[in-house]
Amino acid sequence: MENKHTDQAKVKAKLSMMHSKVICCKLYISESQNAMVVDAISRIGQKDPEVVLLSKFEDEYYNRVRYTLVSYIISNSSTGEVIFSPIRKVLLAMIEAAFSNINLEVHCGTHPRIGVVDDMSFHPLSQAATMEDAAQLAKLLASDIGNGLQVPVFLYAAAHPTGKSVSAIRRELGYYRPNHKGIKWAGQVLPDTLPMKPDEGPTQVPRERGATMVGAKPFVESYNVPILCKDVPTVRRITRRVTGRSGGFPTVQALALFHGDNCTEIACLLDPDHVGAEQVQWLVEQIAAEQGLEVDKGYFTDLSKDMMLERYFKMVSAAD
């Protein structure tokens, strides 16, 4: 009996040490229509028991998948420098698989993107994890991709030297301008030589892979609101009124994206500490009603921060 209690104490001590600093990474890859590729990348994300692939969100119209992974980091107690996180190796393996199996030149979808691996955002989840932890991990992966795989990488938010926002960098790169039928992004959208120097990697863009963005920022929630309208410019005008740039909610970022024959979605990123989904839903419905448009109930595309932590600790405890 004493040995059993000792073993349990060791397990708890290990969990306390290894999982006190918990980080989330949302990895966005430009593919959802090839199920074999999407599933193969998922399996790589599930190989290490110390990294939990919590969720996967696929959208056939966007032709895009988001993988949400959670793990711990270990940092130097005196310098605060990130020493190790098992998520780094797992993410790099997933990225290598994406580059090996996806060709951006033949990709087409209704969500903007600049590369096969379009975006990686790191978020501190537990109280012990800091934004600096997330930023350091982001910069390590950016170096792996840029210098190791020779793909241009742009850093943003806390990972950027001056904190430059992801939207500012995207505007400079022409990220938001569709190049196919006014509603889609097809093939390579960047010039062969970038107009601005990336933070890592070459200035020449590999056409099959494109470029990548990597950043660290506070946790955000993704909430999509479908409007039963195929007139994307009209929905874009509604979208602008929802965001802080045009008098709406200051912390909300949103895009109007074509989503089928009679639907355009307002895809929102919400700061849950400042605005809730119900507030966004109400405002969209009010503005859409002015245009005589019908709005469906919105939906979250991922778990909340609390749910992520709860499921992560439950899964790693079961594994140990």
UniProtKB/TrEMBL annotation:
* Residues annotated as domain Formiminotransferase N-terminal subdomain: 21-218
Instruction: Write one Gene Ontology MF term.
Output: folic acid binding
Q: Check the UniProt entry and state the signal peptide residues, or none.
A: none
User: By its UniProt entry, which Gene3D superfamilies does this protein fall under?
Assistant: Formiminotransferase, C-terminal subdomain, Formiminotransferase, N-terminal subdomain
InterPro entries xrefs: Formiminotransferase_C_sf, Formiminotransferase_N, Formiminotransferase_N_sf, FormiminoTrfase_cat_dom_sf, FTCD
Q: Which domain of life is it from?
A: Eukaryota
Protein name, UniProt field: Formiminotransferase N-terminal subdomain domain-containing protein
**Organism of provenance:** Brachypodium distachyon (Purple false brome)
